[in-house]
Design brief:
The protein is an alpha/beta fold. It is built from nine helices and ten strands. An eight-stranded mixed sheet has the order 2-1-3-4-8-7-10-9, sandwiched between helices. 45% of the residues are buried. Bound molecules: thiamine diphosphate.
């Protein structure tokens, strides 16, 4: 029997919003790993920041915590420290964790805290109606940059990898099955798992056509333990093609293991 992870909360995302695809992928991911006895549902705690993405915790019948803007990562690491037996998964916006909360992201990756962080990467501040953020491309025109953004964007995967994340992956919200599998591997990874989920914002920055012909999956036998290759691939992806998959995965003691030694 499938777990009923839905709630009675009315979904208030825009009709057709890719957050719904992320929600479906996560429900399926959790349903399967609970059925496979890889996880007990009562051991799972989900977190969200502030933004359109942040509503996801309202739509999941799972223990949850909605944090302040940019502050979900320290909330997650605090809960994990207090009870290391819990499985900690966070949903964050690119603005939430790469602007407001970027210092927390870097330090959680550096410590290899045993948490999974899923970034809803729409390359804008969506809830506040489309201002540019740290991931917006140079030239992006939005509410706060009507003549075009004059800054270069950050590469979120490069930040996670260079800060010490031991699981670094990227997926595309429109590929629900691919996203589900990456989520499952991230949840099962011991250590800091960073997943960048590219998601078009159909209202303020519709990138569906842009990504349609650019995304491709890494081959199945892609070497995940080679830091330099991951670095190369992650930086190459900011060009013409956008690769999806797990770029890096490494076994390393976690912050909580060291703490409780
Ligand atoms: C400290 C703080 N700064 C700014 C805001 C206003 N604010 C609320 S949502 C939001 C945008 C969130 O963007 P993002 O994290 O990318 O999430 P999205 O809405 O795109 O899912 C902002 C700037 C706030 N609530 N708190």
């Amino acid at each position: 029997m499938n777990l009923d992870l839905s709630t009675k909360a009315e979904i208030t995302w825009c009709p057709g919003c890719s957050n719904s695809q992320i929600l479906v992928a996560f429900r399926q991911a959790v349903d399967e790993i609970v059925k496979n006895k890889e996880l007990k549902i009562e051991d799972l705690v989900i977190f969200s920041g502030i933004g359109c993405h942040g509503k996801i915790t309202d739509y999941l019948n799972i223990n949850s915590f909605t944090s302040l803007h940019g502050r979900l990562v320290p909330t997650m690491t605090g809960v994990k420290c207090a009870n290391p037996n819990l499985k900690i998964v966070g949903f964050s916006g690119d603005g939430d964790s790469l602007d407001e909360g970027i210092a927390h992201l870097i330090h959680a990756a550096k410590r290899n805290s045993d948490i999974s962080l899923f970034i809803h990467d729409n390359k804008i501040f969506a809830l506040t109606t489309g201002q540019f953020n740290a991931l917006s491309s140079k030239g992006f025109k939005g509410k706060s940059t009507p003549e075009g953004n004059i800054e270069e964007p950050l590469n979120p995967l490069l930040i996670a990898l260079s800060s010490g994340a031991t699981f670094v992956a990227r997926t595309y919200a429109g590929d629900i099955q691919g996203t589900k599998k990456i989520m499952q591997e991230a949840i099962n990874h011991k250590g800091f798992a960073f997943v960048d989920i590219i998601q078009p914002c159909i209202t303020f920055f519709d990138t569906r056509d842009y990504f349609k012909d650019k995304i491709y999956w890494l081959e199945d036998n892609y070497p995940r333990d080679d830091f330099n290759k991951a670095l190369e691939k992650i930086t190459e992806s900011t060009q013409e093609k956008v690769s999806l998959g797990i770029f890096y995965k490494k076994d390393k003691p976690t912050f909580e293991e060291e703490l409780y030694k």
